[in-house]
Please model this.
Amino acid sequence: MNTTSQEKLRKLQELLKTLKSCAIAYSGGVDSTFLAKVAYETLGKKALAVTATSSTYPQRELSEAKQYAQEIGIPHVIIHSEELDIPRFSDNPPDRCYYCKKELFQKILLIAQEHHLHTVLDGSNADDTFDYRPGARARTELGIRSPLKEVGLTKQEIRDLSSQLHLKSSKKPAFACLASRFPYGTKITKERLKQVEAAEEYLFSLGLRQCRVRYHDHIARIEVPVDEIPTVLAQTQKIIKRFKTLGFTYITLDLEGYRTGSLNEVLDK
Model:
C-alpha cells in the first residue's frame, strides 16, 4: 500500500469522525463495501449500511451485500425502492440514473432521520468524475456526501486498500444495475430485466468472471473481457441454446470486449 493511499485513508477516517454518524447507500460493490468497513471501524454503530432492492438489482448482488455487511459487522437495513414505478425511469432517457438516485437517496434520508444519523453517504470515487454520471445531480440536490471522492481515492486505490483490510470485495468485478443493459429510449420492464439477469447468470455459471448482456430487442449483445472471448467462443452452442430459451432470437459477441458504460458511446457528452 503506497504512502498516498495511506494518507487518503487517514483523511477519510478524519472526515468520517467529523460527520459523527452516517447512513451509507450500500450496494455491496467494491466502493460502498470499503466505505462501510472504514465507517464502521471509525464510527461503530453510528454507521448504518442501507441496501435498496428492486427489479434492477440481481439476487446475486443482494446475497453478497448481506454477506459482506455481516462480515464487517455494520448494522444493515434492506429497503425496497422500485425504480420502474417512476415513469421517467422506465422510459429510459439518457438521464435515467438521475431519477433512480433521487428516489433512492430520498428513501435513505428518511432512514437516516429515523435512526438519528446526521449524513447520507454514497460510494462514488475520484474516477467517477470522468464518466457520464447523471445521478450526480441528485446527490448535489439532496446534499449526499461522497467521502471517497472527497479525499481523492481512485478505484484501484480502493481495491488495494480493501485487500489490505481483507475484504472479499477487493477483487469483485465492477457492477452496474441491470437498467444499464438497455439502450436509451428502450422501455425497461420487469420481464426484460429478468431476461437479461437470467442470461448473465448463465454466463457466470460457465466460469466467466465479468460479463454484460446488452439488450437490443431480439438481439443479445454479449460483452466479456477480451481475454475471455475464447471462453465464450468455445461454448457458443450452449450459449445460443440457452439464450434462445430466454427469448432472444439473435446472439452476438462484441469483439471490442467488455467496457463500462458502452451504451453511453452514442451520447454527445
